[in-house]
Amino acid sequence: MVKSFMPRTLTEAVRIRKETGAVPIAGGTDLMVRYRSIAGTLPAFPWPVMFISTIDELKGVSLEQDTVVIKAGTELSVVSESPLIHQVLRDAVCQMAAPSLRNMGTLAGNICNASPAGDAVCVLYALNAEVELATEKSMRRMPLSDFITGPGVTELRSNELMTAIRIPELKSAVSFYKKVGTRKANALSKLSCTGLLYTKHNKIVDMRLALGAVAPVVVRSVELEKSVYGMSRTEFSTYENELFQLYEKLIVPIDDQRSTAEYRKSTTCSLIKEFFRIVKEELS
Prior knowledge:
By secondary structure, this protein is of the alpha+beta class. The chain has 11 helices and 13 strands. The protein has a 5-stranded antiparallel β-sheet with strand order 4-5-10-6-7. The protein has a 3-stranded parallel β-sheet with strand order 1-3-2, with helices on one face. Strands 11-12-13 form a 3-stranded antiparallel β-sheet, with helices on both faces. The longest helix has 22 residues, at about 260-280.
């Protein structure tokens, strides 16, 4: 028998988390599948669970100064419809699972699952997202890129609960998002690619590139991104081949049931080149 809890407030939830180590479940769209049992029986969870979908404090999307705050219990369908959310994230969310599952699943669950193939995680890396983590007595924030440390592994402590995802507002960037899956809808990613670009006076002000499912964690190199800041079209074109080769070295995928390493690498390389074409077009 799985021991379960259903707190009504955030205060109650963090107390239960501290006292029992219960794993929080919002929609359960990842965990229910991972720990599924035989048909007609409850999932075989190896630990207590805590259902947080009824906690109002963990719902909603808001703007705090220049930061978009997505509460951890906010359903994906709400995120996809919010005008506060950057279009590239809305595009990614709309390609996740089926509509019925988007009415249950959350970004926080996608993050805490810590899969390199997480559909939204690649985009959130590119958006410089932070996670907000609470205990009974304190709250801390950390970059998403520091929170996920490996496949299925995060920095979430046994007495902590993720309460929000925080995204610095980004209004003017050109965005690029591609997810490659077996089907167009309701399919897990073979790989994904997110690019963001902001130019001014035909010079690169900000460029970001994140690659999903091609390494143990999402691939993003801030160092490589900064190397193109201030470049014109001519300068970027001259540097493009070297930059591509540097990104190619970061792509180290594996074979699994969804795809081969060779396919992942070749397709990701093609998407990088496609994004670089967009960069040059924007600099024209």
